[in-house]
Specification:
This protein is α/β, with parallel strands linked by helices and about 325 residues long. It has one domain: Ribonuclease Z/Hydroxyacylglutathione hydrolase-like (Metallo-beta-lactamase, Chain A, 4-Layer Sandwich), CATH 3.60.15.10. The chain has 11 helices and 16 strands. It starts with a strand and ends in a 13-residue tail after the last helix. The structure holds zinc ion.
């Protein structure tokens, strides 16, 4: 799904932004990382999205570009998606939740709480409760839990999901914002959500196009935290250039990784699509969910991961064991 905020060379030239979702095939079913905009947003944008963002980003609303329709083109059913991991609850990351009514949705507790409180005018524009019919399936995590992973703190596995899929808190864009690290066949990938908007922001000499920079600042909930986490991502990129780090909205990264234009849906039955990454060594352990005190209007299930052995040393392949890098 494409949006077109001002992001070109000048602040007034319209850019081309996408919502980069990942579909991971695990032993226990499909896992979707972020949902982009959904079918409900396509059919009733005026009711679901804020007038402010409809005007600002002018989303191109096409049903065939939604995650649900593209998953069906791959030969799956929407109900095959058992789990959704959200980087955050902005309308353009969480709009497709309703298309997967049976999926469990994993996110940081802070994101759920802030989105539900709707404290500021901007919160009410970006967070759209109209998109959250699945909220009784939300499973939330405390940001301070977890361990260090590749220099990033508080990284953790998720309930009932393989240990090669990790939630990486990256506050700033929102306070409950996180990235998602996935070990695919060719190595680790880090979907950094909206931790940066211009891929050059994690380069040695960071740069961001002016229009994108204005958009990024407008959406910051904690600018110093975002800059701190961008510095961490820059250090990670420098230390591990083999880890593919990409953000939600960069069409070039999408096209490089998927091998197709970001303006067309996936080809029907395309088994070679790199979206169908099989996570190696699935170590699935189910944990009972425990109902906890809920935020207003939201039923919450917090849970503990006790039995998953989070040994990041063994998850990191030794250099000489790494398969040769493939170009998608
Ligand atoms: Zn966002």
């Amino acid at each position: 799904m494409t949006t077109r905020p001002t992001s070109g060379r000048s602040a007034f030239e319209r850019g081309h932004l996408i919502a980069h979702c990942l579909l991971v095939e695990s032993e226990n079913g499909l896992v979707l990382v972020d949902t982009g905009l959904g079918l409900g947003d396509v059919t009733d944008p005026g009711q679901r999205l804020s007038r402010f963002f409809l005007r600002l980003v002018k989303p191109e609303l096409h049903a065939e570009m939604t995650a649900a329709r593209q998953i069906e083109r791959l030969g799956f059913r929407a109900s095959d998606v058992r789990d959704i991991v959200l980087t955050h609850l902005d309308f353009d990351s969480a709009g497709g939740l309703d298309d997967f009514p049976r999926a469990r949705v994993h996110l940081l507790a802070r994101e759920r709480d802030d989105a539900a409180r709707q404290r500021t005018w901007m919160d009410r524009q970006r967070y759209r409760p109209q998109q959250w019919s699945t909220r009784n399936h939300w499973i939330t995590y405390e940001p301070r839990e977890g361990e260090h992973w590749m220099g990033l703190p508080c990284v953790r596995a998720l309930s009932g999901l393989p240990a090669d899929l990790l939630l990486v808190p990256l506050a700033g864009h929102t306070l409950g914002h996180a990235g998602v690290a996935i070990r695919a066949d060719e190595g680790w990938r880090l979907h950094a959500g909206d931790a940066f908007f211009d891929p050059r922001e994690i380069d040695e000499h960071p740069h961001c196009r002016m229009g994108l920079r204005l958009y990024e600042r407008m959406l910051d909930q904690d600018r110093p935290a975002r800059l701190r986490n961008q510095a961490r991502l820059r250090a990670l990129h420098r230390a591990h250039p083999d880890i593919e780090i990409f953000c939600s909205h960069d069409p070039q990264a999408f096209e490089r990784l998927s091998g197709r234009s970001s303006r067309v849906p996936v080809a029907a039955g395309d088994t070679g699509d790199p979206y169908r990454k099989i996570v190696r060594r699935p170590e699935v352990a189910m944990h009972p969910s425990i109902a906890r005190e809920a935020a207003p209007g939201i039923e919450v299930y917090d849970h503990e991961v006790e039995n998953i052995d989070l040994d990041f040393e063994t998850l990191t392949p030794a250099r000489d064991e790494e398969a040769p890098r493939q170009t998608p």
